[in-house]
Amino acid sequence: MKSESPISNAKIEVLRYRPKLHIWHFVVLLAIIAFCVFPFYWMVVTSLKNQQDILSPIPKFLFSPTLENYQRAVTKFDVALSLENSLIVALTTTALSLLLGTPAAYAIARFEFKGKRDLWFWFITNRMLSPIVLALPFFILARNLKLLDTQIVLILIYLTFNIPIVVWICADQFRNIPKELDEAATLEGYNSFAIFWKIGLPLVAPGIAVSAIFSFIFSWNELLYALVLTRKYAQTAPVVATSFMSGYDLPWGQIMATGTMIALPVIIFSIIVSRQFVRGLTMGAIK
Amino acid sequence: MATDKKSYSTGAFWFVAPAMIVLLVVGIIPLLFALWTSFQQFILPKVHLKGAFLGIWPIFDAPFVWLSNYRDLLFDESFRNALGRSFLFLIINLPIQVVLGLTIALLLHRPGHEWLKNVTRVALVIPMATTFAVVGLIGRLLFNGDFGINNYFWNLAFGHKMEWLADPNLAFISISIMDCWQWTPFCALVLYSSLTMVPVEIEEAAKLETDKWWHVLRKVQLPFLLPGLTAILILRTADILKMFDVVFIMTRGGPGAATELISIYIQRIGFRSFEQGTASAEAIILLVITIILSRIYIRFIYREI
What we know:
The complex is a heterodimer.
Chain A: H1 6-17, H2 23-47, H3 51-55, H4 68-76, H5 79-110, H6 116-128, H7 131-144, H8 151-175, H9 179-187, H10 192-203, H11 205-221, H12 224-229, H13 237-242, H14 252-272, H15 274-281
Helix pairs in contact in A: 2-14, 4-14, 5-8, 5-11, 6-8, 8-11, 11-14
Chain B: H1 2-37, E1 49-53, E2 57-60, H2 68-74, H3 77-109, H4 114-129, H5 132-142, H6 149-158, H7 168-195, H8 200-209, H9 213-242, H10 245-250, H11 262-271, H12 276-300
Antiparallel strand pairs in B: 1-2
Helix pairs in contact in B: 1-12, 3-7, 3-9, 4-7, 7-9, 8-9, 9-12, 11-12
C-alpha cells in the first residue's frame, strides 16, 4: 500500500477538511436570505408601481416601473422637509455626542475615579430605558421653555442615548491602546489632554467612525421622542411615516416611496459596518 | 500601578464633566420632574403655570396627591393588562426567535457554501437596520386585507382571506410576525458569534466522537452559547418594554386594546388622554423595572468593568 507515504497522507488530510456540500444547506440559506430581504424588497417594488398595480389582488411581480411616487411624495407630504430635519438633527447630535463622549470614554478606559461604576450603570440603564419615560417630563419642560417643535429639543434629548453609545464603543477602543504609549508621551512632556488629543484620538479613529455611524442610525430611526416633541416644522422622517395611516384610499406607492427614502440610507450604512452592528446593539456584550 | 492611577484621577474629572453635566440636564432632571409629576393630579389641559423654580423647573397649580396615583395603579386593570400583554408578547416571541436564530446560527456555522453564507450574514443585517417606523409601514403593506401579499398566499393555501389587522388575535400575531422578522436575525448573529468562539480542536474532537449534531450542541457548544442567550433574554425583554414604533404604525394599539403594549399604553394615557400625573407614575414603575433589568444585566454580562 502506497498510502504510507507522507504525500498521500497529506492528500487524505486535505480531502477530509474539504467540507461536503449539501444541496439542502444551500436551499435553506437561500430561504433565509429571501426571508430577510423579501419584505424590504416588496416595499421598494411597491414604491415603483402605479396605484392600479399595487391594488391588484394578484400580486404583480412584473410591471413597468415608475418614479412618479417619489416625485409626488417629495412635493406633497413635507417629506423633503422631514428628511432635512432628520439629517440636521442626526448629524448635530452625532457631532455633539462625539465631542462630549470621546473624552468621557477616554477617562473611563484610562483613569480610576469615584462614581465610575455609577456612570457605567447609568449608561447601561439608558440602553434599556423606554423613551416614553423621558418623553413625558421632557414634553412639559420643553413646552415651558418654548422649545416644542424645534430641532434643538430633539438634538438635546437624543444625546441621552447617543452619548452612552459613543462612550461605550470608544472606551472599548481606548482600552486597546498600550499604556506604554501614554507613559512615553508623559516623558515627552505631554499633559493628559494632549495625550488624549494627539495620541488617543487618532488611534481610535475607526472606533469613532463606528460610534458616529451608530449614533446617526439611532437618531435617524428614532420615533417616539420626535412624535411627542414636534408638530410641524421640526418633524422628522419617521414621524411623517406615522401620519399616512388614516383615511381610505391611501396613496400606497407614495407611502412606500417615503419608507424607502427613510430606510435605504440606514440599511446601506449598516451593511458597511455589518461586522460591528451586532456588537453595537448588544453594547459590546458579545465580542 | 495603584498610585499611578490615583495621580491621574484629578484629570479624569475634566474629561468626564462635560458629558456628565449634559446627561444630568437632559437625562436626570427630566426624570426627577417625572417623579414630581407622578405625585400630582396632573391633567394637562386643566393645569396652569404658576411660575418656575430656577427658570427651568415649572411649577403648576396641580393638586399634590402624594402616592395616590401609584395606589390607583395597583387596582388599575388596564395598566396591568398592558404590562401583561408586553410579557405575553415576550413569552410568545422570544422562544420562536431564539430557536429560529439558533437554527440559522448553526447553518451559518456549518462548513460549506462560504460565499452564500457571507451573503446571508449581510442579508441578516437588513431587517435589524430597517427604521422601526418603516417596519410598521411594511407590516401594513404585507398584512393588508385587500391586496396584501400575505393574504394572497393565505388564500392560495386555505381558500379564504383574513382581516389580519382588524381582528384582535390576528393583529397580535401580525405584530409578532414583524417582530420575529426584525429580531430573529439579531438572535442568529449573536448566537453565531458565540459559536465561533468554540475552540476548533474541541469541536473537531467532539465531531469525531459522535455524528449527532445535537450532542455536539448540548455538550460542547451550549456553554459557549449561554452568555449570548443571557444577553438576548435581557435585551429583548428591555426592547419589548420599549417597543413602540412598529405597533404604533401598524395598529395604534388596536383593535380595541389587543396590541396595546406598555409603551403604547403609557403614551396614550399621557398624550392622548393628557393624564400626565398617572402616566408619569406608570413611567416611573417602568423605570424601576428597567433598573432591575439593568442590574441583572450587569450581574450576568458585565461581572467586571
